[in-house]
Amino acid sequence: MYNVGKVLILGGNRFVGKALAKKIVWEYRYNFVDVFNRSGTGPWGTNIIQGDRNNRKDLDKIDWDKYDTIVDMCLFKPEQFQLIEYQIPKDTNYIFVSSGAADERYIKYYGDYGHEKREVEVLLKSSDLNYKIVRPSYIVGVGNHRPRLGYYIDKIKNNKPIHLDGDGDNEINMVFVQDVVKVLEKLVDKDELDNDILNVCGNDSFSLLDFINTINDRYYQKPINFVFNQEDAIIPKNTFVFDNTQTCIKLDMMFTDFYKGFKDYMEWYEISKS
Question: How far apart are the first and last CA of the chain?
């Protein structure tokens, strides 16, 4: 049960933000959540504010003072933060969904995206806001509009070439959407974790080759056609490894076993494609 009042989700109409809004509405069964996005859409039970966060007049539609928590799902550029920084009350619980791409070990591989997420983090640290920063690894799972896992399922099932950037031996980490939602739920409910940066990632990291071969061995047993050193691969060749130990301790939670989560995802994916 949440200890806070009203929640605003900036975003809330696509993948993680939509799943979070649905979960809070399901727990409370009434209008507890406002969502702000360009499309003017959101899950049933939410109050929708249509607007573009890059437009100051649209941002003026938001009554910033009434929210106990703001979850910012779609903040990508420093100038977007600067538009809202002084509108957010200092005691509001502000949760910024950053990215593992902002990690100093990997930032060089993700171009402007990683650098700009990092710049927003720096601005937050110099602000007076009551913030938390979460850094997810590659987010996968049910409802993903960028189906990384679905790509590999489709290629294996239909004997299509699988493009890999490099030799496929780079270790990566994936996290399921339900675990990202669980972290955000807990942060909505906690005021004592001020100014934290939390890794939101799976328990285990693995190479793409090991992942693809394991999935094939468990479910398909088909010959696989790997095509290496392809720049159009959906996951870049750099290592992308994180540790969720401190997040588990601070939030008293456990993350989904990867292959159990994959099985659930695969069932959803098959139904969604039928």
Answer: 37
Question: How many Cβ atoms are within 10 Å of 253's Cβ, its own excluded?
Answer: 14
- 216: in domain: yes
Cβ contact 100:135 at 8 Å: yes
For the record, the structure tokens of 224 come out as 């696989």
Q: Report pLDDT digits (tens) over 218-263.
A: 999 999 999 999 999 999 999 999 999 999 999 999 999 999 999 9
Q: Is residue 188 part of a domain?
A: yes
CATH number at residue 257: 3.40.50.720
Alpha-helical runs (H) found in 126-257: 148-157, 177-188, 208-215, 245-251
Angle at 211 between CA 235 and CA 178, to 5 degrees: 75
Q: Would 107 be classed as within a structural domain? A: yes
Domain span at 165: 7-273
Residue 150: which of 18, 272, 12 has the closest Cα?
Answer: 272
Q: Evaluate whether 195 touches 266 at the Cβ level (below 8 Å).
A: no
Angle (CA) 93-83-65 rounded to 5° is 40
Tally the domains of the chain.
1
Strand, helix or coil at 80?
A: helix
Q: How far apart are CA 104 and CA 117, in angstroms?
A: 11
pLDDT band at 32 (very low <50, low <70, confident <90, very high): confident
- Residue type, position 122, single letter: V
What pTM, to 2 d.p., does this model score?
0.95
Burial class (CB in 10 A: 0-12, 13-18, 19+), 134: buried
| Residue 240 falls inside a structural domain | yes
